[in-house]
Amino acid sequence: MTLDDLAQRLRDFADARDWQPYHTPKNLVMALSGEVGELTALFQWLTPEESAAALADPELKANVLDELADVLLYLTRLADVLGIDLLEAANAKIDRNELRFPATGR
Amino acid sequence: MTLDDLAQRLRDFADARDWQPYHTPKNLVMALSGEVGELTALFQWLTPEESAAALADPELKANVLDELADVLLYLTRLADVLGIDLLEAANAKIDRNELRFPATGR
Amino acid sequence: MTLDDLAQRLRDFADARDWQPYHTPKNLVMALSGEVGELTALFQWLTPEESAAALADPELKANVLDELADVLLYLTRLADVLGIDLLEAANAKIDRNELRFPATGR
Amino acid sequence: MTLDDLAQRLRDFADARDWQPYHTPKNLVMALSGEVGELTALFQWLTPEESAAALADPELKANVLDELADVLLYLTRLADVLGIDLLEAANAKIDRNELRFPATGR
């Protein structure tokens, strides 16, 4: 299973439900943002240390997995609708970041 | 290049800059949220129709690619720090969604 | 009832529940962001036109009122914890915006 | 200066620039969300303790004031366009929260 497979599965899912009219980039950006809001709510009262151990709590773990999944689903769907290759864009961005933030010599 | 390769590249990037102490799940959720905010700003005044043609504008295209990349980078890094397999979580979520939203018969 | 009264009421509310330790600016920013995410989810599949008529639906109206209230509550609490006068900051920002975006002559 | 005065000032500001067509609730929710994203970015790498002292840094203080102002501006404008009384909604919400979260006896 790759990110391309996931995009295809989401395309089929939307097609089978006639959801394409709702899946404009504007709407999908909002859906992505709403899911990130739910993810944020799971971490809002945790200290940074508690957040690092979040998966030790089974209920919190299930919720975090669920929200991370939703974020990836909408991100993948948004990129697919726009015709963007996410992994290529991400790699190009790291290339730029390597120039912007030179590694500390060690 | 797979999502796993991207996670590895981000791990190396953070290690080379001694950024691990900053990369708590809580902080990374905020960073993800901030990037989604920047992505949202690019689409806020567009109609849904204009949003569908966003990549026809070269400057907007570059900005959208840049923000989508940042969202994937922080999402991947967050999942890696938490020890979560994003693609597995996303597929499990679609499995649940298929039960929750049965396809319209056609 | 003014914004200052609201800040006082929220202060009393947090004090009575010993919630001050959770109300760091960092945590409150996340709580604010989570509520804006919930608000966003209410509008994500609506067209702009439908969004303008959102309050005609009693259930959606109740949800929008609830989320707008939560956003103001966390924004007010955050500003209070930081010692910021929100209305003064907002007015100063409009002053700057008036220079940045001159009115079209009519 | 009250929240009502602020709403009036924003109404005049939008009118003078013919911005009403852009100020649909959907668009304003996105604008609000984008500003909260910028606010979040200011706090993302700070520890909770550092976040409590954020205003001691003059540059960070100016940025926090600026973003908090923007959040209030879009929140006020959104509520005005929808015809919602923000302070009334917020007070009604605290009334409900007092039932939901009884104060610890002291």
Can you describe what's shown?
The structure is a homotetramer of 106-residue chains. Chain A is mainly alpha-helical. The first copy, chain A, has one domain: MazG-like (Helix Hairpins, Orthogonal Bundle). Chain A has 5 helices and no strands. The longest helix of chain A has 25 residues, at 58-82. The first copy, chain A, is globular, with a radius of gyration of 17 Å. In chain A, 42% of the residues are buried. Chains B and C meet through helix 2 of B and helix 2 of C.
How many DSSP helices of chain A? Answer: 5
Protein chain pair with the most extensive contact, residues per chain:
A-B, 63 and 63 residues
Contiguous low-pLDDT stretches of chain A (5 residues minimum) are none
Tell me about the biggest sheet of chain A? none
Our count of domains of chain A comes out at 1
Instruction: State the shape of chain A.
Output: globular
The assembly state of the depicted protein chains is: homotetramer
User: Any idea of the CATH class of chain A?
Assistant: Mainly Alpha
CATH superfamily of chain A: MazG-like
Radius of gyration of chain A (Å): 17 Å
The mean pLDDT of chain A is: 96
Shape-level CATH architecture of chain A: Orthogonal Bundle
The CATH topology of chain A corresponds to Helix Hairpins
Structural class by SSE content of chain A? mainly alpha
The percent range for helix content of chain A is over 70%
